[in-house]
Amino acid sequence: MMNGSMISEFVLLGLTNTWELEIFFFFIFLLAYAAIMAGNLLIVVIVTFESHLHSTPMYFLLGNLSFLDMSISSITTPKMITDFLRENKTISLWGCMAQMFFLHFLGGSEMTLLTVMAVDRYIAICKPLHYTTIMNGRVLMGSVLLSWAVGFLHTTSQMAFTITLPFCGPNIVDNIFCDLPLVLKLACTETYVLELLVIADSGLLSFLCFILLLISYTVILVTVRRRSSGGLSKALSTLSAHITVVTLFFGPCIFIYAWPFSSFSVDKFLSVFYSVITPLLNPIIYTLRNQEMKAAVSRLRTQYISSRQTF
Q1: pLDDT digit string (tens) for 78-89?
Q2: CA distances from 18 to 30, 80, 311 (A)
């Protein structure tokens, strides 16, 4: 195949071709992205500078989760926002590859980190006397590094084959960003085996993480119910924020592999959900429903006002 026939960019169709709707979406997603960055950055700052929260395993993991949310949203949302104002929504070939690499890297890391957070809740509720001993600094750092390592292996196992594929046209991706299954279909060679690998890889990671989460929550609720009749409602109150985030994250992910896509496509909805809605809901759920986070925000605000008055 001649190098001159290879394409150098992809065309993203986006959400709509109507100019009025594009302007509307521009402002909506601009505000959403600003809220995502502000909300998650607030969590990272609070966990970093509030010594009590920084030394608490749950909030240490929450800070890392917020960092992942900011990163995932930043990979796709700024490009999507600027594309609303552009007639030609294009992305370079290697820009597309980089986008897919980091999306699967950070997505796999977030799945693993959510599983680690579920294990943390299990130890805190079921083994409270040994919690600080088990979830020490070394274990926490190792858990975070493990989540990054799983995400890296997840993305390299797929992208190592994708970057070698020839693309000679067509180059139209019917989505708001480069989606790996859609890009694979544009290759000028047979990609059936690679498509199966992508589905198996992503599906297996999602399934294993979800099963581990399900087991953790089931053991927690069964253990608490046996110990105390009123402990079940207290445990549900403690876990409600995490269960909500997990449901929002894994629910659509499971839907991807269970729904017959030949009859109904939800690619764009899921793309918006994971790049905008999920990162926006995480800080809302964890900050508005968490008394310690609210108290930490108040303390930091008081310290900031006192320092300004001093100067």
Answers
A1: 999 999 998 888
A2: 18, 15, 52
CB under 8 A, 24+ apart: contacts of 188-195: 188/1, 189/165, 191/165, 194/161, 194/162, 194/165
Question: Which of 61, 93, 58, 96 lies closest to 76 in space, CA to CA?
Answer: 96
pTM of the model as a whole: 0.87
Q: Which of 34-43, 166-175, 209-218, 284-293 has the highest mean pLDDT?
A: 34-43
Please report which helix (H) or strand (E) contains residue 91, including its range.
Answer: strand 90-92
Please provide the size of the chain in residues.
311
Local confidence band at 288 (pLDDT 50, 70, 90 cut-offs): low
Decide the pairing of beta strands 172-173 and 90-92. unpaired
Identity of the highest mean pLDDT range in 85-94, 145-154, 204-213: 145-154
Contact 176, 15 (CB under 8 A): yes
Distance, CA of 151 to CA of 214 (rounded, Å): 21
Question: pLDDT tier at 228 (50, 70, 90 boundaries)?
Answer: low
Paired strand residues for 9? 92
Q: Is 169 left (phi over 0), alpha (psi -120 to 50) or beta?
A: left
Please check whether residue 178 is in contact with residue 92, taking contact to mean a CB–CB distance below 8 angstroms. no
Burial of 256 by CB count in 10 Å (0-12 exposed, 13-18 middle, 19+ buried)?
middle
The C-alpha atoms of residue 29 and residue 36 are separated, in whole angstroms, by 10
CA proximity to 97, closest of 176, 15, 10: 10
The phi and psi torsions of 167 (rounded to 5 degrees) equal: -125, 110
Record the tokens describing residue 17, joined without a space: 């071709």
pLDDT band at 289 (very low <50, low <70, confident <90, very high): low
- Number of H helices and E strands in the chain, helices first, is 12, 3
